[in-house]
Amino acid sequence: MSTSFANLLAPGRIGSMQLRNRIFMSPMGSNLAEPDGFCGERLAQYYAARAKGGAAMVIMGSVGVAYPRGSGNQMQVAISDDKFIPGLARVAEAVHEHGCKIAVQLQHAGAIAVNEPLRGLPLLVPSIPTPKDFDWAADLTPQENKDMFEVFFQPGVKIEYQAASEEDIEWVIDCFARAAVRAKQAGIDGVEIHAGHGYLLSSFLSPSSNKRTDRWGGTLENRARLLVETVKRIRAAVGLDYPVWFRIDGIEHLKNDGITLEDAIEATKLGVAAGADAVHVTMYADASKGISFTEAHTVQQPCKYVPYASAIKANVDVPVITVGRVEPEQADAFIAQGKFDFLAMARKLLADDELPNKLKAGRPDLIRPCIYCYTCISQIFLGTHTRCAVNAKTGFEITTAIEASPVSKKVLVIGGGPAGMEVARVAALRGHKVHLYESSDRLGGTAFFSSIVYPENGKLIDYLKAQLHELKIDYSLRTKVTPKIAAKLKPDTIVVATGARRAAVKVPGYELPHVLSGDELREMVTGRMGTSLKKKLNLRWRLMIRTGKSMGLLNNNRVINRLSERFLPLGEHVLVYGGGLVGVEVAEFLAERHRKVTLIEPGPSFGKELMMVRRWRIMDSLRKLGVRMLKESELTLIKPGKATYRTSNGQLQTIRADTVIMALGAEPSGAEITEKLKEICGEVHCVGDANELGYIEGAMRNGNRVAREI
After folding, report:
1. Cβ contacts of residue 410 below 8 Å, gap of 6+?
2. Cα separation of 410 and 686, whole Å?
3. What's the rounded Cα separation, in Å, for the pair 547 and 563?
4. How many angstroms separate the CA atoms of 136 and 298, rounded?
5. Which uninterrupted H or E stretch holds 193?
6. What average pLDDT is seen over the chain?
7. What is the pLDDT of residue 526?
């Protein structure tokens, strides 16, 4: 793979618009608009941050051409009236200050609009859809179900559909054209027509949703007519020199009768012939399934869209934009190979708005990675605005600036997990003198173990370690800081970041040798065997683990992940007790390694700490792997080779359990030492899981906030 990024950073052009590189901020709904669709300063600074970070263009996502009709999210930006022009102009000005271009993505959500049902209005569609069951709710927590769906059961709320008439279609085309004119008047540099993701124009393109027999349905040419006429009308309204392009699905997944690649190619050719300057290739999937959002839209599989973008590019003579989990090194090579021309990034630029500048500076090692946890998009489902698990600034650009401290303090950080390293990073940037102490022989804390079962977390650890080195922050390993040691160091400020402790769940039989606590499992795979684990492992496995540790194999999460596919001292039938984030990730990890896994959760929901979009995917994976999942059940007794549990209806059941893993019992560890340290230091903070269980997002957000307050 190329590492100079010469192709990705090369200038480009769409129509008359010159672009400084090939990186765009992808059009992603943010819910950062002010009430009633107006743009405010928080939205301006959200986009300005990505412009300042070096993107060639930011594309404002999901801008409503008919707002409040056809609105795809609750706090959508509107462009349906001249009154919205000043706010849009302010956003454009903020972006232009940094030499970046800005476009708006023009959208009518059609069947996916949220405002019509709340107002008792029908949803505009090409054809009345066949009722379909949604599987989303099954894996949501009771609170999430309430937050997402309760509003739709209020008096007067109804979900009805209206097949678009000729007058409706003319109105839609006119809305798009008038919106494009407003964009131009606001100083926006171009417009993208959203003809993907199941929204109105996409639903006309798809044979799955378009069952019409008139000139707007049937043949591909007819199904593409709404897109074509929209492009033509916009082109006539804004002139030949104003950049106009459209976004289209290269395919619709999880459907037998959806858009095919051949459809996408032909529709693109028609749209380009109508006057489009470029095409943006994405994907869609059957939205009745929770996994649709990671199969397409915000895809989990790396580079999944690239073959579709490449096939479309081979059939048109305009630039092709694509998106969807493409790493910069890969994008650079793909552009060189002629597979596409521009890469749009959403999640990556939420994780690090400075990504383009860091590539230009030759410092990809300092890029904060997206860990694909889906925190960003899950917020939209819950009606809140987007945020990022690894970047505390995202969505809070106005209130989270890192400013120099008026006084440089000596800061002692106890704990080298994500929270501790984030505190150290931000405090050092503010001018404080930081020394971090970690009791183990490696940085990363619990996140190192989680990176074995979910490798993306390891990239965050690598980034934070790189920041410690870049900022020349002193840190010491294998050092447990006691109040006595802390007193000798004479810090001005102490930050406790010792993570969570995992108390034993004292089910009868929990001390048997085939029962592993969460800490013992971590010790086993990382080579740090405590006394209790040594007693549970036979000589052969103790020797193998010691050998792996002495050879350095257990210092690398990726190596451990690969070794675990062949060497894992667990029985064939594994019972995991605790179905939270840790439990479901461990269950998936073991099932992929051919263990027969039973997952028991005392509460009503699995994976409740996971963001819902990722949870939908992992729950689908567990089902496909054959994991037996029992919620509202309680483990009551463990015996050699078997375990007994009480079901939700009170029955006792016994199952085979060669190994039992306790994935319950995590609790904050920092309260006691924090109180003791307050006796020797006037300013003591407790952050991350040491203070409150919040996992990676909680660690990063809490650590960042505390460091800004020191």
Report:
1. 432, 433, 435, 489, 490, 491, 492, 493
2. 17
3. 13
4. 16
5. strand 190-195
6. 95
7. 72
Half-sphere exposure of 492 (CA within 13 A, CB side): 10
CA distance 534 to 547: 15
List, as own/partner pairs, every contact residues 638-646 make where C-beta atoms lie below 8 angstroms and the sequence separation is at least 24, other chains included: 638/507, 638/508, 638/509, 638/510, 638/512, 638/515, 639/509, 639/512, 640/512, 640/514, 641/514, 643/509, 643/575, 645/600
Distance of CA 669 to the CA centre of its chain: 28
pTM of the model: 0.95
User: How many CB atoms within 10 Å of residue 278?
Assistant: 24
How much is the average pLDDT of 360-385? 96
Closest CA to 98 of 479, 298, 357, 379: 357
What does the alpha-carbon distance between residue 514 and residue 523 come to, in Å, rounded to a whole number?
Answer: 15
> Pairing between strand 161-163 and 320-322?
unpaired
State residue 554's pLDDT score.
66
Strands 244-253 and 190-195: parallel
Tokens of 586: 């461990």
Is 199 catalytic? The answer is yes
Comparing C-alpha atoms, which of 500, 482, 484 is closest to residue 694? 500
- Residue 580: phi and psi, rounded to 5, are -80, -160
- 94-111 in b/e form (b: 16+ CB < 10 A) is bbeebebbbbbbbbbbbb
Q: Which domains does the chain have, with CATH numbers?
A: 12-381 (3.20.20.70), 410-501+667-709 (3.40.50.720), 504-664 (3.50.50.60)
563 falls in which pLDDT band (50, 70, 90)? low
Per-residue confidence at 1, pLDDT binned at 50, 70, 90? very low
Contacts of 583 (CB under 8 A, 6+ apart): 576, 577, 599, 601, 606, 607, 663, 664
486 contact partners, CB below 8 Å, separation of at least 6? 412, 414, 494, 677, 680, 681
Cβ-count burial of 437 within 10 angstroms (0-12 exposed, 13-18 middle, 19+ buried)? buried
CB 670 within 8 A of CB 480: no
- Sequence-distant (6+) residues with CB within 8 A of 70 are 64, 107, 108, 109, 110, 113, 115, 116, 124, 200
How confident is the model at residue 521, as a pLDDT?
A: 79
Predicted local confidence at residue 458, as pLDDT: 95
| Spatial distance between the Cα atoms of 669 and 499, rounded to a whole number of angstroms | 6
Residues in the chain: 710
Choose among 27, 688, 2: nearest CA to 344.
27
Residues whose CB is less than 8 angstroms from the CB of residue 30 and which lie 6 or more positions away in sequence, other chains included: 43, 46, 61, 75, 380, 385, 386, 395
pLDDT bucket at 635, cuts 50 / 70 / 90: very high
Q: ∠117-119-124 over CA atoms, to 5°?
A: 50
- DSSP H or E run through 466: helix 456-470
| Options 46, 67, 199, 454, the catalytic residue | 199
Per-range mean pLDDT, top range of 9-13, 68-72, 112-116: 9-13
Judge whether 35 and 353 are in contact, CB under 8 Å.
no
Can you tell me which residue has the tokens 């106009």?
Answer: 244
The H or E element containing residue 168 is helix 166-185
Q: Where are the beta strands (DSSP E) in 602-675?
A: 628-631, 634-639, 642-646, 652-656, 659-662, 666-668
Q: How far apart are CA 198 and CA 249, in angstroms?
A: 9
Cα–Cα dist 283/251, whole Å: 6
Radius of gyration, CA atoms only, the chain: 27
Token code pair at residue 89: 């102009």
Cis amide bond preceding 68, omega within 30 = yes
